[in-house]
């Protein structure tokens, strides 16, 4: 897969992050595109087999290749790993944690309550956002702010996907209505904390911190009882997506 093909994969399969990539400085876009293309591949790996052992073997292949890259060994020619190596070099080894966090997907293991969901979101969406933000110039001192923002945005994305996750066996072990309500409240408070400290994050990192369209509204509607995340969540329209990304591009504001 060339860089162009990675870009197309992200455009089709992760349109919110793709739109945010276009806000980043031109010389940083290839790094973000390859990172997000990798994220798509490792998220898909556990579902390439219904047999847990085979699924884990597929995921382990990615972990092993990333570890080798971290030791300075170039990967074999590969659709994603080759352009990733060109952009990240030995730094690709640090991305193995993103794949490690997907092991539970291999066994279709649901999450047991609020704390488990928070831990999972931190290890997946949180780690991904921090990696991208660092690449765009976010300092170590901003890590707490970005962690708060990533948790809020990641919980919102997880709640939006919850009906599909439940069907796949990856949602809540005990799908009680109060759990999405608590998660929505945690997400809103995390986003508020990050917004209060937004000055700690340079504008150059805005593209990495884009939370997606209509996140505060979505969380508010859950808390008001207008959305039952266990059954269905509202779709994002193309207009809503374009308007949200236009705001990011014009203002650089990743917070609400």
Automatic annotation (TrEMBL):
Name any one Pfam family assigned in the record: SQS_PSY
Protein name per the record: Squalene/phytoene synthase family protein
Q: Organism, per UniProt?
A: Paracoccus spongiarum
């Amino acid at each position: 897969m060339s860089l162009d093909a990675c870009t197309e994969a992200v455009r089709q399969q992760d349109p919110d992050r793709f739109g945010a990539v276009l806000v980043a400085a031109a010389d940083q876009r290839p790094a973000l595109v390859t990172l997000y293309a990798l994220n798509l591949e490792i998220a898909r790996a556990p579902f390439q087999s219904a047999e847990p052992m085979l699924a884990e073997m597929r995921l382990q292949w990615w972990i092993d290749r990333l570890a080798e890259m971290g030791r300075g060994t170039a990967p074999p020619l590969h659709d994603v790993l080759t352009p990733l190596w060109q952009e990240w070099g030995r730094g690709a080894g640090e991305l193995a944690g993103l794949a490690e966090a997907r092991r539970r997907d291999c066994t279709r293991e649901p999450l047991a309550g609020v704390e488990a969901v928070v831990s999972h979101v931190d290890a997946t969406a949180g780690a991904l956002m921090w990696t991208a933000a660092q690449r765009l110039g976010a300092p170590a001192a901003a890590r707490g702010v970005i962690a708060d923002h990533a948790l809020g945005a990641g919980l919102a994305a997880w709640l939006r996907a919850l009906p599909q996750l439940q069907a796949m066996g990856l949602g809540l072990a005990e799908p009680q209505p109060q759990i999405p309500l608590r998660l929505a409240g945690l997400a809103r408070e995390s986003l508020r904390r990050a917004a209060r400290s937004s000055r700690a994050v340079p504008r150059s990192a805005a593209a990495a911190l884009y939370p997606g369209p209509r996140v505060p509204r979505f969380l508010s509607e859950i808390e008001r009882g207008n959305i039952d995340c266990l059954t269905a969540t509202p779709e994002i329209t193309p207009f809503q997506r374009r308007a949200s990304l236009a705001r990011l591009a014009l203002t650089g504001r990743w917070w609400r």
